[in-house]
Queue: 4 jobs
Job 1
Amino acid sequence: MGTSRLYPTEFASLPKPPAGYKPVYITHYGRHGSRYLVNPAQYSIVHSVLERAAADSMLTPEGQRIWQIYSAVYPLLDKREGELTPLGVIQHRGIARRMVGRYPSLFRGHARIEANSTNLERTMLSMFYFTRELLSLRPSLDIHADASRSYMGVINQHTLENPRATEYDIRWKKGDGLWRPAFDAYVADIIDPEPFCGRLFADYGYLQGVCDPLSFERHFFDVAVNLPSCGFPSILDAFNYDELLLLGRLDNCSFYIGKSRFPGGDKRGCYLSEAVLGDIIDRVAPDIESGVRVRLRFGHDGCMMALLAMLKVEGWDAELEDFTRAWEFWDVSQIPMASNLQFVFFRGRGGDLIFLPLLNEEPLALPLESIGGAFYSWNGFVSYCEPILREAREALLVTPVPVVLPY
């Protein structure tokens, strides 16, 4: 299900810090919770093709089963594109509740919480329900929440609000990027829509006269992986296992092209995340000194992937010339709905800071020496990041040269 995977509901106990270390601060970047599809045309295209085939008696028994399920839920999807679903609310309330339960000392009295969101409804509502849950548990908290464009270039680095992003970067991110022809050729090479469509439609030639079967299969897949986020019955069983593997592979490859250390994109998709990494690092000391106990950021899946690539986390650090092999290393299902990266800080008796990095509330291994297998020196991490940030910032000063991606 890739980035449409639902957020986990079961969590192991977290490792305890070394003796003498107490929690002092959490810095966080989180993706919005489960949402409806961003492109409403995907819902309507699948509906219109199935509806027409049903009217023309061109659905197989399997197609009729799918049509019965989808036609019942379709009216509930209309005009909700990109919105947070009720499940998305539950996910963020749960993350907030567990954060308080694990580190109660950070939420005592009038502890100050800073929260920022991108200015999309689903991220703002994710922030709203997260902070609302905090207040329901600790009513005296001092929470400051904002969704200003002034902070947009930090938490959504792949926008023109980021002063280092160019029009070329924005075009590369979108569907008309110069990589699209090569990617589309790859899709056509590995996806044969006839077996899948043949299970739903009585005559493949009929379907070809109604729509492009390859586009229909891909739209159907996007709808199918999204329905569980909306709380509706799954129709993923319309695919066989091999079809799901190939369709999932495409998401890994397209995100790799746009958000990674992909040499064909001059690594810019990754490098732009220097904005949020720099912000995380720069705010730690002043936040702790001024009494901010938790800093929350609510953004998007691609921004999290780019940050993990920036940090050279295992798998995310791939620098493959051949984007078609990205699925061998990248696993975008690690960034499910409501995914989040938390750095939990602890101070020792001598004043030194260590932190526990968590991805989706599980310990995240970083490519530097750990303390006790899960904790890391904050000073060591900052030293590790300095050349990474310098490399990215210098590279982003170079005007990108438009290149059509080969395949």
Note: The longest helix spans residues 241-259.
Job 2
Amino acid sequence: MTAEVVAGSPRANLFRRLWPVLKWVLFALVIAFVGRRAWQLWRDGDVGSVTIHWPWLLAASVLYLVGWLPSVLLWHRLIHGLGGTSSRWDVARAYFAGHLAKYIPGKATVLLVRAGMLADRGCRPSVSALTSTYEVLVCMGVGAAVALTMAPVVWPKTIIDGLPVAIRPAFEHPLIFGIGVVVVCVVLVPFVARVLGLIARKLTPPVVTLSSPHPVTPSDADRPTEPPPAQIGSTFLLGWCFFSVTTWLVHGLSLGCALRAVGVQAPLSDWLIWTGDVSSASFLGFAAMFAPGGLGVREAALLELLTSQPGISQSQAVAATVLLRAAWLVAEIVAAVGLSWNGLRRRTRTRSVSEGEGERFR
């Protein structure tokens, strides 16, 4: 057994060294493929059909931020469930700053940034990282369920035709298929709650507090640094899963606004289709661990989904895909900077009031 471990150790070390290189190679290949594909669609499409309407693009940005509010509330609720005292304002500030961190290589960077920003705002870093992992898994899990529910009306016909013959008939009845997916998801909630707990603890990076406002005592040395084991209750998880569906519905509206922004006559009756497009592309981008922020992967999926739908030209699909990424990125920057600046003002004002009261009693 020892010989096997020793023999396997060099392989593991070699994989750890090669994996960062492989990730960048995969990322570069995806970006090159998507860029080439987008250019072909743009060149071969009807470029004249693309007309930019900026108010619709602004609406897409606003709806994107609004769509994340259920996730902010869920994270705040989880933090307080583990004894944290962070305010909703501080949680929102850390949440959107973490969104920007997803463009830094390494998915765990998001959790580290959020944990660091709440370290002195009423939440231990280990608790913040764990609860943030829970929130991400719940949100993306719901996104995957929504994407699967809408698959019969969203997936291109070429993909459906390539499915096994035994599965293909189910896609011919979208309503029954969707109801079946929802029922299966509800039945599996207790099992999913347990699995989420295991995955969250596995994915949560170790977070070390470099400084503490309180002196360390001998009794603190024996105190565990990690949060106490926490299990999401089935009823709690089910309620928040249904609430998180609104995230993808609002993001679907955001895509609809982006389509309107490039000249597509997008009727509101296509809302559920937009929701399926966004949830499918976002989940695939999240699952691609080698792509920072899902960059390239999400665009590739969204391009194929949009070009397969009637009423959207190839050039409009390319323009909507690119502008949606830009609108969402700008919205994240504005939210993170605005919340941080306002938080700094509030702390400065509080410090000034405290200093004024101190001078009064001297």
Note: The radius of gyration is 23 Å.
Job 3
Amino acid sequence: MIEIKCPVPRLLIPIDGSKHSMQAIEFAGYLGASLSKNLAGISLLRVLTGRYMSQRIPYIDFRAEIMKLSDSFKKFKEEHIERNIKPELDEGEKILKDLGIKVDIGKFISEGDPAHEIVRIAEDEDFSTIIMARRGLSELMEFVLGSVTSKVVHSARRQTVYIVGRKILKDKSCPIPKILIPVDGSSYSMKGVEHAACLTADLKPYISKITLLRVINLALYEKRLREGIDSDEEAVKILDEAKSLFLYAGVPETLITTKVRVGNPSEEILAESEENDYNLVVLGRKGRTAIKDLILGGVSTTVLHRSKNQTVAIVSSE
């Protein structure tokens, strides 16, 4: 049985001044406004990086440790924060308030590796959810370049990470009326179901469609048949279990659709997502490292990288 409570009570929004991060602020504002009294807190985070600072003071040619102690460096950093960083945070705060956020809006400024700082602050300040923008890099390029988004997804053990898509439904009532939840019967995917069920329970007056999707992996179909496993029967059982969590959360059965597709899991999830124009795809996270996901082709990772339009929520198994 699941405890019925809002799964996103405290939101952390990392920003970097780009148009991508502005989209994350907008999505968080619409989502937070729709959650209303169930939203406990929301904060903006701006991380200063050594690379950014060094590019703007090229005349200083010292090691990082010396630069940090340098009076000129400190003065430059303080001026940069006052002139550029605080206005970005103030602008983000204004957007959130204009979208209907009633709770106090926190503003953090940190320095260091962005992914490390995002996860550290999320842990230290007990945020349940991180909302980030995507950059549009390929999966391979993100791995090679050390994408901040990818690092956060793989490092945030207790937080659910929302990666905001390009198509945001700008609706204060609810920005995610159509939700897709792929399930495979694992404990990881059921965590995704629990998250979606609790979220939907808070937003049910505004939800129009919830689809529970089971993809039968065609590559394993004959092998499992030889092992005496009826994949079709198994799919029905998995979907019924997932549906029961929504019903327990008080979600009307009329909102819930169950569907079975056959093929490559990631390809079928992406196809379903695009064909029916969902606003949110909810996936469980298995906790593998980025390199293992790249080599093994993790379904969640593949969907995350290729689902450009929809917002994708990667739900922590913890």
Note: The longest strand covers residues 209-217.
Job 4
Amino acid sequence: MDIIRNFPLFSIVLSLFSGVLCMLLKKKTALIYTCIYEGILICMAAAVLWYTWHTGGSFTYTMGEFPAPWGNEIRAGILEALLALCFLIILLCSVLAGWLFLGMDVNPNKINLYFSLINLLTAAMMAMLWTNDIFSGYVFLEIMTLTSCGLIIIREGGRTTLAAVRYMLLNLVGSGLFLLSVILLYDITGHLLMMNMQAAISELAQDPSAFTVLIITAGIMTIGLGIKSGLFPFYFWMPDTYGWATPTSASILSSLVSKCYIFLLLKIYVRVFGLEVFSRMPVGNLLFVLGICGMFFGSVEALRATNINRMVAYSSAAQIGYIYMGIGIGGTAGLTAAVFHILMHAFTKSLLFLTIPFLALASGSSLRFRDLQGSALRDRRAGIFFTVGAFSMIGIPVFAGFSSKLLFAEAAVESGSYKKLILTMLILAVSSLLNALYFIRTQIRIYSAGESDPFGRHRQKAADPMVILPSLVLAFGNLFLGLFSRVAVALILQGLSHFG
């Protein structure tokens, strides 16, 4: 079973190799190869999850058997394996469900390059989940930024190019701030491995002057990754980025890329600064406030949207606020709620972004609400899958969103802070009400037949298994998190116990 300890590294290397290989393949061959190799990565991640759960802890893999500071290090535990498994499943479902629109939106001669970008992004995603070296995290963070821009701009449109340029510029600012914080940490501690940095920081934190520098460094890092992940007030790039990308790209960017940035930040809080030191910093309270603002203003913007893609994009900004609010609440309960919401949002938002194009296809390829009248009656499969995602976002019992909001409420109670408890309960109620307003409004619209049916000719005639099966998997993931949330919470708790 020791060969399983090599799987995290294998997943990174295989993804890098696949990114180069797909440049040489034809478009259909690139699709088939990508699906097969993603399936292999899913099996690897499942094996690592089983191994870490069976052994009851985490393990480190020293690359080339060279110890620090010369060598690099991978650390795998239950939490990393769980996220890797879920993210890979979502990525594979996004590729399969969005294949139809990929042929419409992307030049046929560039489809193999599109899969090359996806595979390189997978390598970056795996590296950011597994790495225990902060500079390696920065390197693959940049790879993820470049490949994400490629996934947007490959659609080749004026608005798409503008969205990609805006996304690139903001992400470069975030990357620059993150690199600056890495340089400061290296200058202070003399280490790049996260656990070695934590040992040095725990001593430095005893000195008030050094602790001030640590606060500034954590603040710079938080702003950098906050820009890249869409933390309030930096979420304004989301509507155009998600709205003008091809459905597969929108699904991957919204459900996976932003979550990788957040997970890297969470890993640094826990493994580099340590929860004890981090709890003494004002950064946590700042994240709590910004998370609440994101939940409110993102929902208000979603309510004002006249385009369904922009509505769901602004909803993503609100959901990112939930995650940062959980980190700001702090403690094991707050981090558990944040990680659970990462999983919930990843499954749900990918399902929504992959379903919306079929509602539009049944409505003359229009994303405007007034044209979507009765679209769920014309494509009932898309209507059902959209309803699952919408009910989860609102927080209807049985769906994952309800369990997630319940975890945030429990975390606020356990925080011991009356201010955080009152604010959390208030914003959960307000945000849920706003979610209900814009999602139920959409449900009424897509299930209400008008006096005439100008788009009746767009009614779907046949079920495509390539679309239905991935959507079923995503819907099942959502329902599993809702009905069996305690299973996921138990894994997250066990993973957090070995995460630091």
Note: Residues 158-189 form the longest helix (32 residues).
